[in-house]
Design a protein that fits this description.
The protein is mainly α. The chain is 69% helix and 0% strand. The protein contains nine helices and no strands. α1 packs antiparallel against α6, α2 crosses α3 and α6 runs parallel beside α9.
């Protein structure tokens, strides 16, 4: 095996580790917000509301909602990646697993730190799985697909989607509170920070010196080590 092939294999392995570690941590962090009981992230409010309505565990509800959202990609002509499909299942399973391990919490002295920890870990998880570059989650893909189809800004589309899911979830019995507000304020800066922390260099490629082209100049390529993250 050449050095280039070995480095490419290592790069792929690291991406896969980041993907699944990030998705599992995302589910665990969402479960901590549930246990803190001080308000959930927007989609978590919807998941909890549907759990109250149906009696199904919140992790399974997350999987069902993720699958439904993924079906909405079809008319939007979005293409899922490995990370997209994995997101649907791994996050929900990690949520239910964490909830089974972490029991109910009593008193603000423990619930507030757990809420803050949940939000922080959610930012770490977001940086991990997005930097792996295996495709966006179903909900992010819905946002970017609607942005492309409607021509509306990402900010407007995201706000409209999250307001709709929060209101629906709250009406169904989902939890709104300080955690919801703190999450909305903190997740953007946290995600941006951890995207930089976990950014991966471009995979190594073999160096080939081609003959001078007879036609137009070749297209310039990014400098070695530069990673292009999904927008």
């Amino acid at each position: 095996m050449s050095d280039t092939t070995a480095r490419s294999t290592t790069h792929l392995t690291r991406r896969l580790v980041q993907l699944y570690a990030g998705l599992a941590l995302y589910g665990a962090s969402s479960a901590l917000l549930v246990r803190a009981g001080l308000g959930l992230e927007p989609w978590g409010v919807l998941h909890q509301g549907l759990t109250e309505l149906t009696g199904i565990s919140i992790g399974v509800v997350s999987i069902i909602v993720g699958a439904i959202v993924l079906l909405l990609w079809i008319p939007l002509r979005q293409r899922p990646g490995l990370g997209t499909v994995s997101n649907v299942f791994v996050v929900g399973l990690a949520m239910d697993g964490t909830l089974a391990l972490v029991g109910g919490l009593d008193g603000f002295g423990i619930r507030i730190p757990v809420m803050v920890l949940g939000i922080l870990l959610n930012g770490v998880a977001t940086g991990l799985y997005i930097s792996a570059r295996f495709g966006p989650g179903p909900r992010d893909g819905l946002m970017t697909g609607l942005n492309r189809v409607t021509g509306r800004s990402i900010r407007l589309v995201r706000t409209a989607i999250e307001v709709a899911v929060v209101v629906t979830g709250f009406l169904l019995g989902g939890s709104l509170g300080a955690g919801t507000v703190l999450y909305a304020l903190a997740i953007g800066p946290l995600a941006q920070l951890f995207l930089r922390v976990f950014e991966l260099p471009a995979p190594a490629t073999a160096t080939v010196t081609p003959a001078p082209p007879a036609g137009p100049d070749p297209v310039a390529t990014p400098p070695s080590g530069q990673a292009i993250l999904p927008q």
